[in-house]
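Newbie here. four chains, one complex. Structure please?
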Amino acid sequence: MASEQHNAQRRTPVTIHDVARDAGVSVGTVSKALNDRGQLRPDTRARVRATAAILGFLPNELAQSLHRKRSFTVGIITSDRFGRFSIPLLEGIEDALDPARIAVFLCKPTDDLELERRHVDSLLAKRVDGIIVTSRRTDPRRPLDLGGASLPVVYAYAQSEDPAAACLLPDDEGGGALAGAHFARLGRRRIAHITGPERFAAVRERRVGLARALADAGLVLDDQLVLSGSWSEEWGREAAERLLDIGRPFDAIFCGSDQIARGVADTLRDRGVHVPEDLAIVGYDNWEIVAAATRPPLTTIDPCLDELGRLAATRLLGMIDANDGQRAAATRVPCRLVVRASCGGGAE
Amino acid sequence: MASEQHNAQRRTPVTIHDVARDAGVSVGTVSKALNDRGQLRPDTRARVRATAAILGFLPNELAQSLHRKRSFTVGIITSDRFGRFSIPLLEGIEDALDPARIAVFLCKPTDDLELERRHVDSLLAKRVDGIIVTSRRTDPRRPLDLGGASLPVVYAYAQSEDPAAACLLPDDEGGGALAGAHFARLGRRRIAHITGPERFAAVRERRVGLARALADAGLVLDDQLVLSGSWSEEWGREAAERLLDIGRPFDAIFCGSDQIARGVADTLRDRGVHVPEDLAIVGYDNWEIVAAATRPPLTTIDPCLDELGRLAATRLLGMIDANDGQRAAATRVPCRLVVRASCGGGAE
DNA sequence: AGCGCAACGGAAAAGCTTTTCCGTACGAGC
DNA sequence: GCTCGTACGGAAAAGCTTTTCCGTTGCGCT
């Protein structure tokens, strides 16, 4: 007698047939009642609904999707490990997808193309309605190999070598310009730039933007004051030392990341240089946890990755609904200047 | 004539029927050929396989799942925003699920119970095989409301009020003990503790562990040297100041997070206190990017969240396969001491 | 040459929902 | 009172795969 409840057998979910039986109608009628279609007497509709509620009926979306030829799911593939960039991106994506009642398959990050291929196959087999590709670098990558299938694909914080692909990218040049203009506005004249590896497109673009904004203000970017290294705090410290030691005057530093800026700020502090009085600093990323904890808190460029994610998802939804091919183009999402204390003059 | 290719019509995926037609066999035969079942002549099998490959046939998993009553997907629900903790957890989970060919539905984080309910319904409707609940706090939370359904659920870095639930938690007490033992081994006698808000279970447990390890070494934890505050770098700086000012001697500080430790280290540096010579520091979290950039790099406790994620996923797989109810219990996953430079004596 | 068995492959049902197409029954109008 | 129209709800097909159950073919043996 104990054996019945001993094995907490998993209950099989209630189906539309169960509801039909209990409500004394046919399954078709249940479907109509629940989906507000067909011609049903109000009381029939109500009765069916009540029965469904009592039974806790949840339509099997597998069956629904099979029928509708639309799964209401999308896949996210990332060619790099989860990280600081993926998070706000993911948030933005989910933000836009949630109201559309679309669920997200997350694929384990990999930059192995063979593995990526397998992930794509797996998503295809699940009949996702679309795929979002994200990365940690904005440099062009090989287009996603759909292996003959045709399906909307959006690259978010990633770029495909295929010029016709839908890509959403942060406006790195604009970000650089934002920093340059901010310095100029505050009366800084000689701007240094400590940034990441030259091979990153973002590094080159931000520098271009910075130079452009300075030029617009009648200033020039001194190549001697541009130092490319890695993305680390360590590099920020080292580069700051170097900058101080070459003895060329400068009154502001634009940093390629908040981490670099953090390193820079620490070194300046050690060396008795006052920020922002002697030197203004602008960081990049608006990585709250770093930017806010730095002394002084960092004025920085926010690439608005959450917004980028939202836009990417919205774009994907558009492509799914339109059922048209990838009429597309790369789009740059504007950055935002976040003013804290590291440049002084918070008042815009 | 242009209109045919004008609208890049989405191709409808190739089905098993297409393969059957092209291979000149029935759909049943195709299924058998592809799945290695039934009695088929080797050449038939090969021919079908070749046809399938040419056509790029990918079985519709929706239909498969419908039939098998098993979707090979699991849902992840998190009651807190994506963050530093979710990332390694997710990595671990995917690590364990990927080889089992199980895909993950990621739900937008929320701590709104009503919204959570909706997410669960959505997962249930998708007939996920199980659910993993994660959080950012290890304090007990209300059990996930499955609304009558029965389905394996595992709590990872989260705890259910239901004592029978399967919970995987970091061994915070053990983590505290690890720090205490490390200090004792290095000959430190008077240990301070700067930690997060008292209301966190983790804070209380780590403290207990610390005290226990000290007691084991014949030392006592001086309550005057225990400071609870927030999890921020700012608090680390402030608490370090206070500690230095009260004038009670101490030769080591156990910090509740690497961020706190970072703040502490910065303040000590400002005040001319040498680490590790004058004072040893142990952090918590092994948040690489912070711990490694601190001067000196932080010796810290790694809660091994990736391992925890792996274990959680493995546990869930077990529950799914076993088809038994939640025969479960809370499990503590051991932490790991990561030695860098902030305590000196790297040699174990 | 005929019988039986093994090997092979086809037909059909099941899994669950939606939707189209019909049939029935009722009310209204003549 | 009869017919037509409409409102309601049922039956069945479609969507795609797997699996069970059978039927057929061909071979070997006598």
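Moderator note: Residues 206 and 336 of chain A are 14 Å apart (CA to CA). Chain A touches chain B through 60 residues (CB under 8 Å). Thread marked as resolved.
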